[in-house]
UniProtKB/TrEMBL annotation:
<dbReference type="GO" id="GO:0005829">
    <property type="term" value="C:cytosol"/>
</dbReference>
<keyword id="KW-0409">Iron storage</keyword>
<dbReference type="InterPro" id="IPR009040">
    <property type="entry name" value="Ferritin-like_diiron"/>
</dbReference>
<dbReference type="GO" id="GO:0008199">
    <property type="term" value="F:ferric iron binding"/>
</dbReference>
<feature type="domain" description="Ferritin-like diiron">
    <location>
        <begin position="1"/>
        <end position="151"/>
    </location>
</feature>
<dbReference type="GO" id="GO:0004322">
    <property type="term" value="F:ferroxidase activity"/>
</dbReference>
<dbReference type="InterPro" id="IPR012347">
    <property type="entry name" value="Ferritin-like"/>
</dbReference>
<keyword id="KW-0408">Iron</keyword>
<feature type="region of interest" description="Disordered">
    <location>
        <begin position="60"/>
        <end position="89"/>
    </location>
</feature>
<dbReference type="InterPro" id="IPR008331">
    <property type="entry name" value="Ferritin_DPS_dom"/>
</dbReference>
<dbReference type="Pfam" id="PF00210">
    <property type="entry name" value="Ferritin"/>
</dbReference>
<dbReference type="GO" id="GO:0020037">
    <property type="term" value="F:heme binding"/>
</dbReference>
<protein>
    <submittedName>
        <fullName>Bacterioferritin</fullName>
    </submittedName>
</protein>
<dbReference type="GO" id="GO:0006879">
    <property type="term" value="P:intracellular iron ion homeostasis"/>
</dbReference>
<dbReference type="InterPro" id="IPR009078">
    <property type="entry name" value="Ferritin-like_SF"/>
</dbReference>
């Protein structure tokens, strides 16, 4: 794989992280009900972490003589992570988060492979670190799914 593929994946990951920040922020505001409080708190914490991921990806792009994409290059795709019509529908939010985390995990795995093939250990290390964070988020929300299954 080439360094261009690494840059493309870094940009995709950056866009995904920024979209996740927007959606987690919106969800942490709109969810209602006692069952939603723990989810809202987790999403609020994750907003800062995902924003940090975007910052790291953007810095890496700059180091590779590229730049993070601006809003004109942004294309939203997190359909399942949109605020639900029923603002007490915690289960649909959990499912949307799990979809977003799976997408991020897949992107970071691709980036690990691409960076290794391009002999770019710095991008590879960044991808491994961010992959671990996303896997931790997925584990947390899998737990929420088990807990909220009966609600």
């Amino acid at each position: 794989m080439s360094s261009n593929q690494v840059i493309d994946l870094l940009k995709k990951a950056y866009n995904d992280e920024m979209e996740t920040v927007m959606n987690y922020q919106a969800l942490s505001i709109v969810l209602d009900g006692i069952h939603a409080e723990e989810i809202k708190e987790s999403l609020q914490q994750d907003v800062q972490e995902e924003l940090g991921h975007a910052e790291q990806l953007g810095q890496r792009l700059k180091q590779l003589d590229s730049s993070p994409p601006g809003s004109e290059e942004f294309v939203a795709h997190q359909d399942t992570l949109q605020p639900p019509a029923d603002t007490t529908d915690v289960t649909s939010v959990i499912d949307g988060v799990l979809d977003a985390e799976e997408d991020a995990i897949n992107t970071y795995r691709e980036l690990v492979d691409a960076a290794e093939a391009a002999n770019d250990p710095v991008s590879e290390d960044l991808a491994v670190t961010l992959l671990a964070d996303e896997e931790a988020h997925r584990t947390e929300f899998r737990g929420f799914k088990k807990e909220y299954k009966g609600n």
